[in-house]
Amino acid sequence: xxxxxxxxxxxxxxxxxxxxxxxxxxxxxxxxxxxxxxxxxxxxxxxxxxxxxxxxxxxxxxxxxxxxxxxxxxxxxxxxxxxxxxxxxxxxxxxxxxxxxxxxxxxxxxxxxxxxxxxxxxxxxxxxxxxxxxxxxxxxxxxxxxxxxxxxxxxxxxxxxxxxxxxxxxxxxxxxxxxxxxxxxxxxxxxxxxxxxxxxxxxxxxxxxxxxxxxxxxxxxxxxxxxxxxxxxxxxxxxxxxxxxxxxxxxxxxxxxxxxxxxxxxxxxxxxxxxxxxx
Amino acid sequence: xxxxxxxxxxxxxxxxxxxxxxxxxxxxxxxxxxxxxxxxxxxxxxxxxxxxxxxxxxxxxxxxxxxxxxxxxxxxxxxxxxxxxxxxxxxxxxxxxxxxxxxxxxxxxxxxxxxxxxxxxxxxxxxxxxxxxxxxxxxxxxxxxxxxxxxxxxxxxxxxxxxxxxxxxxxxxxxxxxxxxxxxxxxxxxxxxxxxxxxxxxxxxxxxxxxxxxxxxxxxxxxxxxxxxxxxxxxxxxxxxxxxxxxxxxxxxxxxxxxxxxxxxxxxxxxxxxxxxxxx
Lengths: 279, 280
Prior knowledge:
By secondary structure, chain A is an all-alpha fold.
């Protein structure tokens, strides 16, 4: 900031009033924001704890963070938490594959071929607004109470955002790239592999992120109704036996999962889209 | 890829023309009626000619080039490109604006045509290496386009077209988005690279300076519908230095002469655009 000619021999006034003097007492805006974003949730927990202990908050509905934490520790030690988390993670994983892969294939193909778009666009537009939770009874009816119904629920949730974004991703590709492909004699498969897929990838990735979020919501709902394991079941069961701390543990784990998934997907994005400009 | 002419009309045609265009017409049909972009153009281009087409904006010169590149189909007429080697692609285009793939490195972009044609890897390595060297991009082979300046991106586009080793090269105002200094540099580089192989080039531009600097022959097109207005031979010898060339008095005279032809066409195009504005 300071020009070298000025900083060579600063007069006393400039040391006090100049930008350098002020900077001594300041940290960068980014650093300050980071500190605030760590401190503020911690502060909320402290306020919460204090409010419960002083009786300002009803401990039956809002158990103190310290009690939730001790429940967390005991469920980890007994292995219960891990069993439920693992069950949910497995369903999420298979649901992601089952919904994501066909969605990607169909979406890219729809983006590339107008007739396919004409066929599937109205179907997707009509079924997309149906709340996924409302289809749960139907899914239970068709796929039973076993693993399949949960995996299918996740798959349905993942399917829409991935498919819709894949279509948009291909349509967003600058037409000039398709001209280049044609001019350089790319065949159908080569057009798909070298232009449609990589060109759509940035928008597809945001579809996958949305899909994973949707999958997390739906797995919790599906497990509440027809399951004997999983985080959704754990939360529902805790409500039935009024183990409120246990409920909070379940919510906490789901929140942490969502956060970790975001981190993983961001990392994945950096890895598979190295040309993305904002890095 | 190219349409083989049933060339009954080729009575004037030189037998050894590299590109033979006969009665080429292209009409577009839109909601606001149909218009003729290219109107009955016939043209012979000898092998090794750097052929320039100059015309006002909207005169159909890009349409003509896109038909040559097989990206549009003509309404009537034929195009014939003499194929000396059937393993080679008939044409490669250097596009206007940004046309290199942002998701590929400089190397993969330059190698694109060769990859599509499934040329053996060793050969790709040699050819692409050569053209990256000629365009000064060797050190940027692994860079992605967003790390490059506008001029360098257009160099990649040049390398991609030359590396593909086509029968003819098509260039659609490749330097129009560049600033004056970069444009001059790239024109010089293009001439240097072209001198190695002397492929037949069809280059369209709206810049009279560019046409005189680069071309062997210049076709001036009328405003819509695009017809041939005049054909001018450029007398300058090769290899050319852009700056030396512009220093010569003959250069200025030629530019002046071409402007004479072009002026009324530009005015006609302008009047047409203004009439459209009024209609809206």
